[in-house]
Specification:
about 450 residues, alpha/beta, Endonuclease, Chain A, 18-stranded mixed β-sheet, about 25% strand
Length: about 450
């Protein structure tokens, strides 16, 4: 299944390269200017807070912050135009099994609606189990709406989705590969890479995990297998998701419905998708749902957070093919004394992208960035924690495809307690990673160097 998707992806990139002009990422130097106000905008279930109320809330939440979270939040808002949302509970879901258990439990408890958006929905054990839950909930009268990507589900038999439709589930295939299925608005290179599930408008899940047994397998350090007793084909997948309760669920619900509407997929069943969500916790978050016709808000947020870092940048990236600004920002941070550590794939499902990312290693290592390769799992997580305060979890990779071509969603959490959970997950990844040392890297085979050069030439499209 994976090989079929990768072949389709390469074909799409080749075709797109011949028919579209290259779009550039925003210039970091123009992202921010004079701050328009002294307090970041904070939304709640009752609407936006007045500046004095917002200032008081943030002062309480960030009283122990060791970095200027207020200043960072202002810069991020100015660059992205997206306000923060207060009053949320955010739970970190480390790896696939924990995520699948939580999502299935929430789906089984649905009373009114389930909205599911995923890049991959496989016809395998996990996919079938998930489909059975959705069909049963629909039988009970719950409205079920699904968006799946046209490329991500190429390997999924049509009969799998026909069964869901026959049960009354509304299924939308996003940007089908067949142009006759969406005449006039065919956008082959723009893929829906988001992973979102909203239950009853009050519980949401998002991150990097698809609906598939492949992604739901535990990485080896979460299983009983020993790394030295398995082949590469046996390794699990390392990924991250989050569960959100509180007012921020509405932002993810809006992202789902907006995507549905813009695909001209017809009207959704008329129920109340947007509830008056009372505070469920104390986390302040920013939901960044991006699309090709927007201005790369996820990219802007990341570049600003890296640029404002004071102590640490701990980044985990499944597909790492950064642009010049991100490379320069990481090196600049390392040179001013920031502890910059990257966990990148040692085992990958896409060797071409891995080589493209490795073409940046020598420059980063010479600039003081520490690089580790995870050995006991196929890395699929997309997370960052900066200064032990600013965290990002989502679907976007560190590459132009995510920042420019895809529909993605990342959630930024500005909270020291949540960041501690993120740091703990990062440390666990480090324990099962090998550090890449500059001297050894310079002695790598010339065949690898050639692959890096060739892969780097296609970095805009892969």
């Amino acid at each position: 299944m994976i090989k079929k998707r990768l072949a389709a992806w390469c074909a799409i990139a080749a075709l797109a390269c011949t028919v579209t002009a290259c779009k550039t990422l925003p210039d970091a130097s123009t992202m921010t200017g004079a701050l328009p106000h002294a307090t970041p905008t904070v939304a709640t279930h009752k609407g936006e807070l007045k500046q004095k109320q917002a200032a008081a809330l943030l002062k309480r939440r960030w009283a122990r912050a060791s970095t200027d979270l207020k200043g960072l939040a202002l810069l991020e808002e100015q660059a992205t135009g997206v306000p923060m949302i207060a009053g949320n509970a955010v739970t970190l879901l480390f790896d696939g099994p924990a995520t699948m258990r939580a999502m299935m439990e929430a789906a089984r408890g649905a009373k009114k609606s389930i909205n599911l958006e995923t890049y991959i929905f496989d016809h395998d054990a996990i996919g079938a189990q998930f489909a059975d839950i959705l069909i049963e909930k629909r039988r009970q009268g719950v409205v079920v709406n699904i968006i799946v990507d046209g490329v991500g589900t190429l390997a999924t038999p049509r009969e799998f989705f026909d069964r869901l439709r026959q049960a009354g589930v509304n299924v939308l295939v996003f940007n089908p590969v067949d142009p006759t299925k969406r005449p006039g608005k065919w956008a082959l290179n723009n893929r829906d890479h988001r992973k979102i599930m909203i239950v009853d408008g009050s519980i949401a899940f998002t991150g990097g995990i698809n609906i598939s047994s492949t992604y739901a397998n535990s990485s080896l350090f979460r299983s009983k297998k020993r790394p030295d007793n398995v082949s590469q084909d046996d390794v699990g997948w390392r990924d991250t998701h989050i569960k959100i309760e509180g007012p921020a669920v509405g932002a993810l619900q809006w992202a789902f419905i907006d995507n549905w509407v813009h695909q001209d997929a017809g009207e959704l069943p008329e129920i109340d998708y947007f509830l008056q969500l009372a505070p469920a916790g104390d986390k302040v978050v920013r939901v960044l749902a991006t699309s090709p016709d927007r201005d790369s808000e996820i990219y802007k947020s990341l570049v600003i957070a890296i640029g404002e870092s004071k102590k640490s940048i701990h980044l985990t990236a499944a597909y790492f093919v950064p642009d010049r600004q991100i490379v320069d920002s990481l090196i600049a941070a390392a040179r001013r004394g920031v502890d910059v550590q990257l966990v990148l794939p040692g085992v990958s499902d896409h060797g071409f992208i891995k080589y493209a990312g490795e073409s940046f290693y020598q420059e980063l290592l010479e600039g003081g960035v520490r690089i580790y390769q995870l050995q006991v799992a196929v890395l699929h997580a997309k997370t960052t924690v900066i200064d032990g305060m600013w965290s990002s979890i989502g679907s976007a990779n560190i590459d132009r495809r995510s920042f420019i071509h895809n529909y993605e969603v990342n959630v930024v959490v500005l909270d020291p307690a949540f960041a501690r959970d993120m740091e703990a997950a990062f440390r666990e990844d480090l324990r099962h990673s090998n550090e890449i040392k500059l001297d050894a890297w310079k002695r790598r085979p010339w065949a690898d160097r050639l692959r890096e050069v060739m892969a780097r030439m296609t970095e805009y499209w892969i």
